[in-house]
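Table S2 (continued). Query chain:
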Amino acid sequence: MAVRNDNPEPEGPEQSAAETTDPGLGSKAPHFIRRSRPLHLSWQVAIFLVGLAVVALGVVMLPLPGPGWVVIFLGMGIWATEFVWAQLVLRWTKRKVTEAAQRALDPKVRRRNIIITSIGLVIIAGLGGWYLWKYGLTMPWKLS
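Corresponding output:
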């Protein structure tokens, strides 16, 4: 008696452990690329190099003008199309950002942040007023 398998997904060694535990994890490469091991490995190397270039560009942008963190997370997103570890890092990051946003919206935390910002602005205004009282509008350097 033959048993009919209506499941189109392959079972066994072709299916990675990540795909069996969580359908959202794993390679997002097209099926024809995943089917051939050498082609899939080449695809992974290319994705890794492109993601590495984008992350490196983001790291360079951190001290220089530019959206450094945005570019770094864009590179992580590129890596996450192929690598489970990058997908897990992005999930963790999204969870932490969501938690931080929720904490920032908490009325007690907002009140504390507003008070600290107000105190900081008063201190800066006081230092600016003291400087103007002591030295006037003359700058400490000469531009002649």
